[in-house]
Amino acid sequence: MRTYELTCIFRTDEDNLAKGKELVKAEFEKQSVKILKETDMGTRELAYVIKKETKGHYYFYEIEVQSDKIVEMDKHFKHETSFLKYLFVKKEN
Predict the structure, then answer these.
(1) In sequence order, what are the beta bridge partners of 39?
(2) Nearest of 87, 88, 37 to residue 62 by alpha carbon
(3) Domains, the chain, with CATH or none
(4) How many CB atoms lie within 10 A of CB 82?
């Protein structure tokens, strides 16, 4: 198992934010992800407009998971509308 960081930028309205967080948690359970750290970074101005939005709600996760599961989660997250952006980064040990 490897350690990864996941940063998600959700739409700022409460419905999409709640839906997005639930989606991430459900996908983590499905893929047997161990959450090491979870941080709500709050709403921030975006550097540029993303999907007609100028603000986003940032959420950070530090997770432990097998490498092949990242690809599966990426495929699932791509089609979700509650995300503005997300990024998986492999953490160096």
Answers:
(1) 60
(2) 37
(3) 2-90 (3.30.70.60)
(4) 20
Q: What are the structure tokens assigned to 34, written together?
A: 């161990």
Nearest to 65 by CA among 12, 15, 28: 28
Rounded distance between C-alpha atoms, residue 35 and residue 7, angstroms: 13
pTM, entire model = 0.90
Give how far the C-alpha of residue 64 lies from the chain's centroid of Cα atoms, to the nearest Å: 14
Task: Calculate ∠ Cα 90-80-41, nearest 5°.
Answer: 55
Cβ neighbours for 23, distance < 8 A, ≥ 6 positions apart: 77, 80, 82
Nearest to 17 by CA among 43, 48, 53: 43
pLDDT digits (tens, 9 = 90+) for 2-19: 999 999 999 999 888 999
User: Using one digit for the tens of pLDDT, what is the confidence trace for 44-80?
Assistant: 999 999 999 999 999 999 999 999 999 999 998 998 8
Task: Tell me the two tokens of residue 21.
Answer: 């967080």
